[in-house]
Amino acid sequence: FIDLNKYLTFNPRNSVSLLKPIMPSILGKIILAYLALALGVAGFVLFTSADLSYLESRVREAVAITAFQDDAQEMRRHEKNFFLYHAPGELAAARGLAEGLEGRVASGGEVLARVLPGEELAAMSAAIAAYRRLLEPPDLDASSTQAARVREAGHVISEASDRLAERERGLLIETLRQS
Question: If you count DSSP H runs as helices and E runs as strands, how many of each does the chain have, helices first?
Answer without folding.
Answer: 5, 2
